[in-house]
Structure formats: C-alpha cells, structure tokens
Amino acid sequence: MVEFISILILVGTIFTVIYLLFFEEEMDSSIQKRLLDIKKSRDGGTVEESPSSNKIYEALEKREKAKKLNVLEMLKEQSEYKIPILGLLLGRFKFTETIKNQMKMADVKMPVDLFFMIINVLILPFVVFSLLLNNIFILFTGLIAGSIPFVMLRIKFQARLKSFSSQFPDSLGIIANSLRAGHSLLASFQMVANESPYPVNKLFKTVSDEISLGREVREALQDMNNHMPGSEDLKFFVTAVLIQKEIGGNLAEILDTLNFTIREREKIHGLIKTQTSQAQLSGIVLGLAPVAIAGLVALINPAYMEPLFNTQMGNFALFTAFTMSLTGFLIIRKITQIRV
C-alpha cells in the first residue's frame, strides 16, 4: 500500500509540473491571439499604407517599445510568479522573500514558484525510494540533491560579484574623467552604463534610470548595495559620493584615490591567494579523499560496503564520517580566508 501511494504521488507531481510549465504557456498564447483578433475586428481592419510610411511606423514603434521595456524592466519585480495560486501560497512565508532576494542578487530571472518546483522534483524521487526501500541514506541523498539549486544560486552570485570587482576600478576611472570633463554625476553614470561590460553596466543603468525618473540620488545610491551585497568597493564608492554631496569637495580626486586603493588591495588579495593556495588545496583533498576512497571500495568490493548502506549503525557511521569531513574542510577554509 505504501509503495502504491508513493508511486502515485511521484507520478502525479511530475504530470502536474509538466502541465503547469508547458500547457499554461499555450493557453496564454491562445488567449493573446483571441484578444488580438477581437481588437482587429473592433478597429475594422487595417489601413493600407505605403512601404516608406510602414518603415517609419515600424521604427517609431520599436523606439516606443524599447522605452516601455526599459521602464517595465525597472518597475516590475524580477521574480514574479508563474502560477498565481502558488504565488498566494508562497507569499505567506518569509523565506520566499529571502529566495527572491538571492535570485535578484544572482540576476536569475526565474519565477520563484518554478524554483521551488525544481527543488521538489529533485527531492521527491529520493523520498519515494526511501519509503520503498526503507533506507534513510537515500533520503539524505535527496536533501543534498534538493540543495543543488541553492548552491547554483550562490555560485552564480559569486561569479557575478567577482566579475563586478574586476571591472569596477575601470568604471571609477570613467566616472572621474567624465566629472573632470564637466559632466554631471548622472551623465557619468549613464556613460558607465553605455561603455562598461556586464554586470557593471546593468547596475549603473538601473541607478541612472531611477534618478532620471525622479528618485532621490541618496536613495538610489544606497539601493546599489542591495543589488550587489558583499562588495566592499561599492560600499566605499557610495559612501564617498554621499559624503561629497553633503560637505562638498573634488569628487574626481576622491574617486582617483579610491581607485588606487582598490587596485592596491586587489594586489594584496592576489598575494594572499598565492600564499594560501597550498593550504586550500589540502582542505579540498582532505574533504574529498574519504568520499573517493569509499566510492572506490564500493566499486571493488560491494559486499564490504553493504553494511554502511543497509544497516542503521552503518548509516549513522556514514553520516558521522561525512559530517566530520565537511567540518574539517570548512575549518581549513575559514583559516585560509584572510580579510584585507
């Protein structure tokens, strides 16, 4: 009976996810097509125009569409829900807002409910097989599989932060030179948005568009830290600009000094990374060696490893060994991380 219910839950969940992800888009497209037909019939058809007027009309339409998309990109929430019912359900929990913020920081444009669907699809098969085989180790493996989306978010954010940190000093140079040429701070931000690569251009484009729409400069600058948390260089930049707006001074010289400081700190970071690379490699080897050895022994002599997977004491010993290896790896990693 338990096996039948477990398989039924698994199959029902898979079909529900497939239906919500694919068939709903077809329904939306059919509804949009019907609305377009109604609009055409209400307008009484289209008026024939010359080729030149059509080209002018298409160019104006593209320009207006680009403006609308630019405004909507700033105003709409990046992590909107794909399924309204799930949105109402997930909106009641605080951790949903946390996931939204993490997806926003990682610049992942995926609906939050779809993100939770992926997690459930990764975990549910292991839960079903754990009930069928009465093996808690399979359930533990399912929890690890369910954490993969969170790990991917973290990796994507770290890659985005690293790319931003490497490009940010050049952006400071562009802003300083633009201010010396007599441009305003807003024009300098727009120049960075046009000249710099991703992700620096997106951040400054967002800030410059917000200021152009009437938002206070202080609020827009302070909100930059929310778009790229963890960047000490960005915090220094925001603080320097806000202080200069309060008490005055030569902002171009301040940014040059900040640029020099950031580049020198990056040099020290590289030196520290070189000196601690051996210790970090030792931590990785110590963390992966037990897993590699256990997998090799299980491949050579499966009967020898069966008690670890099929008995309660074996599962406990396996969990303890994994926890201790992970703890040792995290301790070594913490020791080798030196703040500058």
What can be said about this structure in brief?
With 340 residues, the chain is mainly alpha-helical. The chain has helices at residues 2-43, 51-75, 84-90, 94-105, 112-133, 136-146, 148-180, 185-195, 200-212, 217-227, 232-247, 251-300, 302-310, 312-336.
- Largest sheet: number of strands, sense, barrel closure: none
Unreliable residue runs: 19-28, 45-50, 74-79
The domain tally reads: 3
Mean pLDDT: 77
The SSE order reads HHHHHHHHHHHHHH
Query: Structural class given helices, strands, pairing?
Result: mainly alpha
Strand content: under 5%
Radius of gyration: 27 Å
Beta-strand segment tally: 0
Number of helices: 14
Overall shape: it is flat
Calculate the terminal CA-CA distance, rounded to whole Å.
60 Å
Helix content bin? over 70%
Oligomer: single chain
Care to describe what's here?
It is a single chain. The chain has 340 residues and is mostly helical. It has three domains: 2-36 and 65-146, no CATH class; 164-249, no CATH class; 275-336. It contains 14 helices and no strands. The protein has helices spanning 2-43, 51-75, 84-90, 94-105, 112-133, 136-146, 148-180, 185-195, 200-212, 217-227, 232-247, 251-300, 302-310, 312-336. The radius of gyration is 27 Å and the shape is flat. The protein starts with a helix and ends with a helix.
List the helices and strands and how they pair.
Layout: H1 2-43, H2 51-75, H3 84-90, H4 94-105, H5 112-133, H6 136-146, H7 148-180, H8 185-195, H9 200-212, H10 217-227, H11 232-247, H12 251-300, H13 302-310, H14 312-336
